[in-house]
Specification:
The complex is a heterodimer. By secondary structure, chain A is of the alpha+beta class. Chain A has 3 helices and 8 strands. Chain B is α/β, with parallel strands linked by helices. Helix content of chain B is 44%, strand content 19%. Chain B has 5 helices and 5 strands. In chain B, α2 packs parallel to α3. The longest helix of chain B is centred in the first third of the chain and has 13 residues. The chains are: A alpha+beta, B alpha/beta.
Chain lengths: 163, 121
């Protein structure tokens, strides 16, 4: 399990949710995920690629967490995972990947983000665009659980590290 | 108080930015795409533009370049609001005519501080 991308993503999602939703997620122990079924009911996916590396990320929220984040950020009180909730989940995945990308760029990588995609359903599948073991980062919040997934693939010879 | 054109393909972020700016007393013209923002800009000038960078069809950087060709928008301040951290993209947006940068995620305070700074220029 290549964990060099784990901390930038972990730090980024904690930063996004604390800054924009005043939520303090607590990270559980990372593990390898079996199967492709999402552990939440709404999932945002986004990739970052470049410098010989491709990383597929997904963030999957349980319904209570998705609704609570929307309530705090939008000052609305959604009861279902509607279009606004889905849109917000996509934007959270965008900000999570953007923050991780910034950290990695500080280490010499040059990366580009794809546009986020959102999937819903109970259950639904998460189909990563990168092949490999799926690293699962479980989080708990005062509203419930959410899960971040990462899959990375490298072409080592093309990595351009600074310094 | 100011007239502000806000552009973001995320309805949620656009709504959030609009709420923050409206609560501060500004009038916000919220547009979900670069094309709609450009169409609006052809008919009305504003005091400030806030635009996302990574949008489908027309990026925020392309939007800024097109806005700068409109006579009423040659000197109107433009702030880019984005997750983008790459220096080359910041430099490119400046070259195209952007005046500043607001990093996502942002707080209400950081967004208002950046807009106030631009409006008081």
């Amino acid at each position: 399990m290549d964990v060099k991308y784990v901390n930038p993503v972990l730090d980024s999602i904690v930063n996004v949710l604390s800054m924009m939703a005043q939520m303090k997620p607590e990270a559980g122990k990372p593990r390898i995920k079996d199967g492709s079924e999402a552990l939440g009911v709404v999932t945002g996916m986004i990739d970052f690629k470049g410098s010989g590396v491709a990383v597929s990320t997904a963030i999957s929220f349980s319904k209570p967490v998705a609704l609570e984040i929307t309530k705090r950020m939008m000052h609305t009180d959604p009861q279902e995972v509607d279009e606004m909730v889905q849109d917000l989940v996509g934007e959270i995945s965008n900000m999570m990947a953007g923050g991780a990308k910034g950290t990695l760029e500080g280490q010499g990588y040059s990366l580009d983000l794809t546009l986020p995609s959102v999937f819903t359903g109970d259950p639904h599948e998460i189909k990563h665009t990168v092949s490999g073991p799926v690293i699962l980062l479980p989080f708990t919040t005062e509203a419930g659980d959410f899960f971040v997934e990462l899959v990375s693939a490298e072409e080592t010879a093309q990595i351009q590290q600074s310094g | 108080m100011a007239e502000i054109l806000a552009v973001d393909d995320s309805r949620a972020i656009l709504s959030m930015i609009s709420q923050i700016l409206q609560n501060a007393g500004h009038t916000v013209h919220a547009m979900p795409s670069g094309a709609e923002a450009l169409e609006f800009a052809r008919s009305q000038a504003v005091d400030l533009v806030l635009s996302d960078v990574n949008m489908p069809e027309m990026s925020g950087i392309s939007l800024v370049a097109k806005l700068r060709r409109l006579p009423e928008y040659t000197t109107i301040p433009v702030l880019m609001v984005t997750t983008e951290t790459a220096d080359y993209k910041k430099q490119k947006s400046k070259t195209m005519g952007a005046n500043g940068w607001v990093q996502k995620p942002f707080t209400e305070e950081s967004l208002l501080a950046a807009t106030d700074k631009m409006l008081n220029k």
